[in-house]
Amino acid sequence: MTTLQDTKKSSGNGGSAGNGGKDGRAISLSSRQWLGPVIALVLVIIVNGIISPAFFNVKVVDGHLYGSLVDIVHRGASTALVAVGMAIVIGTRGIDLSVGSVIAISGAVMAVLIRDTSLSPAIIILAALGAGILCGLWNGILVAFLDIQPIIATLILMVAGRGIAQMITDGQIVTFHGAFFEAIGSGYLVGVPWRVIIAAIVIAGLWAVMRKTALGLFVEAVGGNARASRLAGIDARGIKVLAYVISGFCSAVAGIIIAADIRGADANNAGLWLELDAILAVVVGGASLMGGRFYLGLTVIGVLIIQALGTGILLSGLPSQYTLIVKAAVVMIVLLVQAPKARQMMGNFWRRRNRNGQ
Hints:
This protein is mainly alpha-helical. The chain has a single domain, classed as Orthogonal Bundle (ABC transporter involved in vitamin B12 uptake, BtuC). 73% of the residues lie in helices and 4% in strands. It is built from 16 helices and 6 strands. A two-stranded antiparallel sheet has the order 1-2. A two-stranded antiparallel ribbon has the order 3-6. A two-stranded antiparallel sheet has the order 4-5. The longest helix has 27 residues, at 236-262. InterPro entries: ABC_transp_permease. This is Sugar ABC transporter permease. It comes from Thalassospira marina. Keywords: Cell membrane, Membrane, Transmembrane, Transmembrane helix.
């Protein structure tokens, strides 16, 4: 392996020193996966600041942070949770269209238990998380053991899930009251929203598990080539099931936050179309829908980009429906940039430019 890498380096540094330096800088920039999403986020924030000079104003009111920047992070917390779970599933070359329904189911379980029982908050939260984990386990079994295509397997729960949530709530919007749960949705700790703290803890924990252990490599190996990973001794089916379980868990946490925020369970609208934002965030973060790689940190940046786009459109005074058009345009641009043909054309352009600059 070392010899092969040395050969690549020597062949890449062939030619004039000037050309090697330019190629080296181009390769260095292209290898920094974080650069594109970070630049995009900075540009969106700058444009928002131009549209509304008050965008950067952050103030403290009653010990709480307020401002557009804070609102982007605050509103993006639940989406970020769903998106990081989606990123892990996509890393296995899968997809999870049921995350919105899982949010509705988990929120419904929590709301009904709060209203109809006197169980402790810890048990209620565990029950809601368990519902999400069971949903993820169901998806994982369909994909890994029954070999159903992920988009079809998760579409089943996407359609049926809201019906299940409505059965749990008897078709009603269930409301509840409780200081503990209301704090999860709208409370603050040292000026920082609790929902942001919860999301940060979960995402940091997943990042540590995926990047500080071999599990992340196993996920990417299964996504890159499931058959080869099995020959290498990796339990590809188990990894796929685990990925969907993690996605279900993350969606359940988001469902708890969303239900706590509105102090009720709305089986029809909770998490509606949130799967599209999650997939978009993963793609904007640089992951390939063909599997084999995923980036949790960049996925969070993708969520912030999406949330900042929506905030900017609202600040500009345009109707909210323009948000969907902007998101569609972003998806198109990102997919075009990620297309192999586009990458090949870009590489040819840089090589021609470097040769002409000699």
